[in-house]
Amino acid sequence: MTGRAGSTPGVRRLLALLLACSTLAIATPGSDAQTSVTPPKQGDQPVQAQVGIYVEEIGRINEGEGTFEVTGYLEVAWQDARLAPYAPEAGGGERTFLEDEARKVFEHAWWPDLEFANAVDKGERMNEELMVAADGHATYRERFHVRLSSRFRMHEFPFDTQQLRLELESFAWSGRDLQLKVKDSVVGFSPEFELPGWTVLGVTERIRDHQEPRDRAPFSELEALITLKRDPGFFIWKFLVPLTVVMLLISGALWIPPDQIKDRVSVTLTGLLTSAAYGFTVTSYLPAHAYDNYLDAVVVFSLVYSSLLTVLIVASYRIHINGRPEVALRLDRFSSFALPLLFLAVLGVLRWVY
Prior knowledge:
The protein is of the alpha+beta class.
């Protein structure tokens, strides 16, 4: 018992020494650096950080999955007088830390620690740079590549306009500790930016308070909206025009003599199968949704049109075999002009509706 009791003070001193050493290691990242991982607030006022996003490239827009990929530059600037140990030793200017050096500074000093809230995967940070001025003004820049989720509204597809969302916030500091501000000089696109199949209408950024049910407090969030308008040329020439031509051509079945019912029906069945095949193809470009879009409506009407043509052909055949061939012929001639005009007119009406 005595030996055990006598060892207790020694154990305590050893634990205290280890704790002191660990604290010292955290507090001194360099020979003269001082640790401060709490926000540099002025009283109860949160830290103000200016944020800007510069888009370099957008790729792999996947409406079916509701995702897109973006490559760009992020810039964040804030003020923290406690960064003086990392500032230039003498004179003005800034001290620059690159890549791993910048990450090491953030291990011992406070920073906004921003992440994309709507990221699908971890993403990639490249070309990191931290610049610290003598007065504690810090500017952090990075090049990033990340896959983000976004809500696609496909009602007008393929004549639709979409907004791609980039939602940036700190996962560590709520709005009570950190407030973001838009850095206008960093908002925009690279002059070499191109997005095949889309026309970029602009990019806007705004700051909003965002809170999920699991969050303890609202978080200051930068929401960048990239507005794109789809170029419908691909879908017009690869889907709409061929399907329209097929529907107009199967109307030629009405010029086949009414008594040749087998040949007539085989033509209309070709139209039905073609419409169904186009429907499956269009679906591969679209997300799962409970509403129709323009191409959906065109495909459905093509099925209805082929079915209507089949009904007219059968009716004409029945009239012909019942001893009224002249009536069947008049019905065929009228339908051969009226149905194609009806199809084209409905295409125009659907475009107006959607």
